[in-house]
Design a protein that fits this description.
The protein is about 5% helix and about 50% strand. The chain has a 16-stranded antiparallel beta barrel. It has helices at about 1-20, 25-30; strands spanning about 40, 50-65, 70, 75, 80-95, 100-110, 125-135, 145-150, 185-195, 200-205, 220, 225-230, 240, 250-255, 280-295, 300-320, 325-340, 345, 355, 370-375, 375-385, 395-410, 415-425, 430-445, 450-464. By secondary structure, it is mainly β.
Length: about 475
């Protein structure tokens, strides 16, 4: 399998390079980057007040080697092939007065054959963001905002601009409480953010959702209706999110820009600028919530744990030689997570499967492509990409690699994940074809690595 996988990647990369450099493909190369006008409506004569709309769609075609014991609708599946929509989004935002800014985002995520909410595939789209912001200063020194928002602490990947990702997908572990006590990483929050010289900052007070509304703990009554369960006490000596009680969440993120400043228009942070900017920064962030977790003590008494997550990171994204239209993008981050004793969460991105065979020697929730994604312990994450030199009238090719090492307390062996892939940038991020090969660990019930599994993903992104 390893030889076949390597050969597949090499053939694909060579094919893309040859395809992009062929002069005879005039109809294709006409799709190379051009200056497009946004869907933008002026609200005054000089255009300083405006309202803008964008659309994003990321379609996946994927082949995945299943983790041990995986079932799809009850059938054992060693491998899966699936088609899905990783993200479909509409953004609506604008400067409605000289100092008032509004931002909305509506859409859906992870829509494939296994998706359902209350046994209904139609209930999927929702508002991701709905936030108003007021700028108190003449420049970007201080902005106050509130609503349902992605404005988070911890890391730049906790506030990701999904339309500008360099790798095929995000390091989702950086959205550490995703769909547990938040709404796909969004929270009901008030915040202050801005730029003071070369310092970019944000401080956030969030009112987290209860784990009871996460849609993961349900039972069916005699009439067949789904009802939520509210546990009155923890049932494990390993920490989980507390079902009883409520506390607020405090977040902060601080980034120092050595070269150009990054955009401060929205709280979202760019994946890669494709050589349009020269950015180098170091940053640190944190999230804290008291009594967020609970567990049983050794004498079976309920014990609450605080949640404290922090990160330090460095980011580089710059052109190398403007005349050659090439660019480099690099990131390195260290994450320290304390969710309480032995907390561990398995998660599979747009999981193509939905069950495990009874009695299989594997952890609960480890079906399909799931990995131990979040947990108490430490994570090191790195990514590197290079936009190859190309003529501005032709598509660009950007190979990338990423590496994740997760040393969670619950695991006997660390989780090492490897990704290698390439972007074919037909019109920058606006029309982009991406291929990714992933190699991940699969664990037995003792949390030791028993096998390694592969996954191949082809994505087409359209961004208007």
């Amino acid at each position: 399998m390893k030889k076949k996988s390597s050969l597949t990647i090499l053939v694909f990369l060579f094919s893309l390079y040859t395809f992009a450099q062929t002069d005879s493909l005039k109809s294709f190369t006409s799709l190379a980057p051009v200056e497009d006008k946004p869907l933008k409506f002026s609200l005054n004569n000089d255009g300083s007040r405006y309202f803008q709309i964008t659309f994003l769609n990321q379609a996946w075609v994927r082949f995945n080697e299943s983790n041990a014991g995986t079932t799809v609708f009850g059938d054992l599946q060693e491998n899966t092939f699936d088609i899905g929509l990783r993200r479909t989004r509409i953004q609506m935002y604008g400067q409605v007065t000289e100092r008032a800014f509004v931002y909305f985002q509506f859409g859906m995520n992870n829509f494939n054959r296994t998706y359902q909410m209350d046994n209904n595939r139609k209930i999927q789209s929702f508002f991701h963001d709905a936030v108003g912001e007021y700028r108190l200063t003449k420049g970007n020194e201080l902005k106050l905002g509130g609503g349902l928002t992605i404005a988070n602490g911890l890391s730049r990947f906790s506030n990701p601009s999904v339309g500008t990702i360099m790798t095929l997908d995000l390091p989702v572990f950086a959205q550490a409480t995703v769909d547990q006590t938040d709404l796909f990483s969004r929270k009901l929050s008030v915040y202050a953010r801005g730029q003071l010289g070369k310092l970019d900052y944000r401080v956030v007070l969030s009112d987290p959702f209860s784990i009871n509304s996460a849609g993961t703990s349900v039972v069916t009554n005699a009439a067949g209706n789904i009802q939520a369960i509210t546990k009155k006490a923890p049932d494990s000596k390993d920490a989980t999110f507390a079902n009883v009680g409520h506390t607020y969440q405090y977040q902060g993120y601080f980034s120092y820009n050595f070269w150009e400043k990054e955009s401060n228009l929205t709280p979202y942070m760019t994946g890669t600028y494709l050589g349009k900017r020269k950015v180098l920064n170091i940053a640190a962030g944190a999230i804290y919530q008291s009594k967020a977790m609970w567990r049983l003590s050794e004498d079976s008494v309920t014990k609450y744990d605080d949640m404290f997550l922090w990160c330090v990171e460095g980011y580089l994204d710059s052109y190398v030689n403007k005349g050659k239209n090439d660019a480099i993008s690099a990131y390195l981050g260290y994450f320290n997570y304390n969710f309480g004793k032995n907390y561990l969460r398995y998660n599979g991105i747009m999981n193509p499967a939905n069950g495990l065979v009874n009695g299989v020697n594997a952890p609960s929730g480890s079906f399909g492509n799931a990995v131990p994604m979040m947990g108490t312990g430490q994570i090191i994450y790195a990514q590197l990409g290079y936009l190859l030199p190309h003529e501005s009238s032709k598509p660009g090719i950007m190979p990338f690699i990423s590496y994740t090492r997760s040393d969670f307390d619950k695991l006997k062996d660390p989780a090492n994940l490897y990704d290698v892939g390439v972007n074919l940038l037909m019109n920058g991020h606006k029309s982009k074809l991406s291929f990714d090969y992933q190699n991940r660990p699969a664990y037995n019930a003792d949390y030791k690595v028993s096998q390694r599994k592969s996954c191949f993903i082809l994505q087409y992104q359209i961004f208007i």
